[in-house]
Amino acid sequence: MLNYIWVALLIVGLVVGIANGKIDAVGKTLLDASNDAVTFCIGLLGVVSLWCGLMRIFQDAGGINFISKLISPVIRKLFPETRYNKEAEKHIVTNLTANFLGLGNGATPSGIAAVHELERTNPNTTARKSTCLFLVVNSACLQLVPTTIIALRNSFGAKNPADVLVPIWITSVLTLITALLVFFILDGRRKR
């Protein structure tokens, strides 16, 4: 559906540009925007690669297993299916650690793997409570170092790209608390 919307917007823009006699400006804008998009992606590629590589080294060095042992009581309480599925627990910990470090792109593969593991033995067509809770926690995760935002601010020339840390810490804590409250309230209503 979204593809149709983008195509429609592009066609409308071209038609309006032709109708106003500004097709040259439309063409120049399209080319400039394409160039800016490629430059922007290449700029982010370095930061995302660095942090994904560090996460991989952290995982290979046993850091994920160490953190898993520390927070496994909380993970098992929130996600009961992980008691018997160590692979799901590992993916959840990897995902939450990557999100904590602000690596939304680096957290995606482990998030997909965690959902797959949580739902692997589910015979129903509806998602389990653990899967829904994981998606809520994943979406509203705490961020210690929002690396992608800092990289974006740096690429756009911010004088101090990291001056957003305190506001991000405050909003991510409030967002996570709110998301968990809403989840458990709605889950309690569903059970009644």
Overview of the molecule:
The chain is mainly α and 192 residues long. It has one domain (50-191). It is 78% helix and 0% strand. The protein contains 8 helices and no strands. It has helices spanning 2-19, 23-60, 63-78, 86-100, 104-119, 129-139, 147-155, 165-191. The two termini are 36 Å apart.
Taken from the alpha-carbon principal axes, the silhouette is globular
Integer-rounded radius of gyration: 21 Å
Instruction: Name the beta content range.
Output: under 5%
Per DSSP E runs of 2 or more residues, the count of β-strands stands at 0
**Amount of helix:** over 70%
Keyword list:
192 residues; mainly alpha; 8 helices; 78% helix
Q: Would you kindly provide a brief summary of this structure?
A:
It is globular, with a radius of gyration of 21 Å.
What's the SSE blueprint?
Elements (H helix, E strand, L loop, with lengths): L1 H18 L3 H38 L2 H16 L7 H15 L3 H16 L9 H11 L7 H9 L9 H27 L1
Helix pairs in contact: 1-2, 2-7, 3-4, 4-5, 5-6, 6-8
